[in-house]
Design a protein that fits this description.
Number of strands: 26
Order of helices and strands: EEEEEEEEEEEEEEEEEEEEEEEEEE
Oligomer: single chain
Distance between the termini: 19 Å
CATH architecture: 6 Propeller
Strand content: 25-35%
């Protein structure tokens, strides 16, 4: 495990005073730097996931446009909408990975595991994809819908286009976010927190099925044995566990307010003891479980956590983004540093903090956001 850390946050600037300014905790000082250098014909788009590997390379999984649905065949299918870029530690563009990938529809998260494999979570395709260091696909979790429902063409006037849709080239319909594998509901506005269906057979809302089929997943993490944990967070409200080979083991959680229930589990991280930390953003808390899903405790002093990570080493820390509530972009937008008992230690709390920080990798007890002084 390398003795460096990178927390990279890419988001729009926020006007207003962050809520962390009210807390009597040390301030995390930092410098914001435009470090990524793109070719002239490539633009960033909406960066959803950021990660670094042991060499310091930076990976950005970004939403670059609306996915399209091709309707010139008997089975309409969605494609496009997100791209995955790699940069070296100086910010120089290296390559694009997975161009035109079947599962790249609506970027959600990027992570790098201890073996330097790159993982991406795609919300619309409802898939988690593992790439090796050479950019080759090694593992697929979840299932993209084999086809999409498209209104039949009739002889009468065409129906009004749904919100978020636009006319495309002949044979294509340009759409916004939609359902992923397993028949999840169509998505609403970006990062909407409303309660979708996500009901498993005979189970409570949000529990999903005891299977590897997701409904708009949000994040992925691993324990020391290599077991894989997926936060299945927008369509369902659960955590799914797999063994190191990708075989489904179990899942836990449903939609609600009680301990062990979730309202949009948006991020996931695992400490050296194998405890699983879930950013339960809709309930404004971080919940802690053992590796079998047994509830241990919860932290309530974290605002609206959307992304979390934990540093390695003998003394671990948890970093969490306190993202803006969808109803008010003039508050919050901070990054918190906590110990693993949930005690708030420091906060990035300047008047020019971020709208929705996208926390990347924690790789040591010292971390950076672009170029940081005190993280």
């Amino acid at each position: 495990m390398t003795k460096r850390c990178s927390i990279v946050a890419v988001a729009a600037l926020l006007a207003g005073l962050p809520a962390a300014a009210q807390f009597a905790v040390p301030e995390i000082r930092f410098e914001s730097a435009d470090v990524l250098k793109f070719p002239d014909n490539i633009h960033l788009g909406e960066a959803a996931g950021v990660a670094t590997n042991s060499k310091g390379d930076v990976f950005v999984y970004t939403r670059t446009g609306h996915p399209t649905i091709s309707i010139g065949s008997a089975r309409p299918f969605a494609h496009g909408g997100s791209r995955l870029f790699q940069f070296d530690r100086t910010g120089k563009f290296v390559r694009e990975i997975g161009q035109g990938s079947y599962g790249f529809l609506f970027a959600q998260q990027a992570r790098v595991d201890p073996q330097d494999n790159l993982w991406v979570v795609d919300q619309m395709s409802s898939m988690v994809i593992k790439f090796d260091a050479n950019g080759q696909v090694q593992l697929l979790l979840g299932r993209k819908a084999e086809s999409e429902q498209v209104p039949a063409r009739g002889t009468g006037p065409a129906p009004a286009a749904p919100a978020g849709a636009a006319a495309g080239a002949a044979g294509e319909a340009i759409v916004g976010r939609g359902a992923g594998g397993g028949g999840g509901r169509a998505a609403g506005p970006a990062d909407a927190e409303g309660p979708p269906a996500g009901r498993g057979r005979g189970g409570p809302p949000g529990a999903g099925a005891q299977s590897d089929v997701f409904q708009r997943p949000t994040d992925v993490a691993w324990d020391g044995a290599g077991n894989i944990y997926v936060a299945d967070g927008f369509g369902n409200s659960r955590v799914a566990k797999f063994d190191k080979n990708g075989k489904f083991v179990k899942s836990w959680g449903s939609r609600g307010l009680a301990p062990g229930q979730f309202n949009t589990p948006h991020g996931i991280a695992i400490d050296a003891q194998g405890l699983v930390y879930i950013a339960d953003s809709g309930n404004r808390r971080i919940q802690v479980f053992d590796g079998d899903g047994n509830f241990k405790t919860q932290f309530l002093n974290v605002g609206t956590p959307s992304a979390i990570c934990i540093t390695p080493g003998p003394r671990q820390y948890l970093y969490s983004s306190n993202s803006n509530p969808p109803t008010d972009l003039d508050v919050d937008g901070e990054i918190y540093k906590l110990d693993l008992n949930g005690r708030l230690l420091a906060a990035a709390r300047t008047s020019s903090m971020l709208e929705k920080p996208a926390i990347g990798e924690c790789r040591s007890s010292r971390c950076t956001r672009s170029r940081s002084a005190d993280l």
